[in-house]
Write the structure tokens for this entry.
Amino acid sequence: MNPSAAQCVQKPGSESAAEREARAAELRAANINPRTGLATDYLNHFNEAIMLLEMVPDMPECSEDFLSWRPLSYAEHFTASNFKARDLAIEAYNAADARTRDEFDNITSALTSILVAVGGAMREAQHDKTRIRLAEQATGWVKPLVMQAGGIINGVGAADVEYIMTH
């Protein structure tokens, strides 16, 4: 390799401050948190299910709408969405800190498991009263998890709490 080519090669993570700031600006413009690499748009997938569940007590027939909801992974959600920067969102997610991504994935996995289990129970339920009770319980379980996922996306995790408490 000649010296000029060697000078152009940078090791991963060795980008300049200007390059890091340009990347952060690109992520912010796309509504992706530059600190975490995650986008709140993914939570719309779960908020849709919550909205449908919240309608069931007043309109039990809406349980059918909830039953049409299907779980999607982060990448599946963005691939199927009209999100302008969907490729960037997937790329940033894949490049996110593994601990942050794991914490986020654990919460969204729990959300998905709850919603799928409630859907299964609603399919088996014989009475609207049972579907209503399931919808009310599920809403109470998943709303706090969506808030936790939002905290992770926005960079408010255990490490941040420790930092705040010590500074």
